[in-house]
Amino acid sequence: VGIFASSLTKNQMVAGVVAFIINFAFFLFGILTQNMQNIFGEVLSALSVSDHAENFFKGVFSLKDVVFFATFIFFWLFMSNRVLDSQSWR
Question: Mean of the per-residue pLDDT values for the chain?
Fold first, then answer.
């Protein structure tokens, strides 16, 4: 997420704030979905970093959580690559 935010702007402080906001939003998804019982709550819970990290903190390495974090990393690297490619065409 930090690399993606850094690819959006030339200012390091702005990139740091953007990365913090994105990471904080993914952390908050788990807290916000505790009272939701609908499909929207399930989707946000699946995107929650805190829900997936909780198992790692307990020492449980499930394939679902490993795939989530690998996908999370590769998605933001892909998005960073797309931003840098689009900037090279300008």
Answer: 89
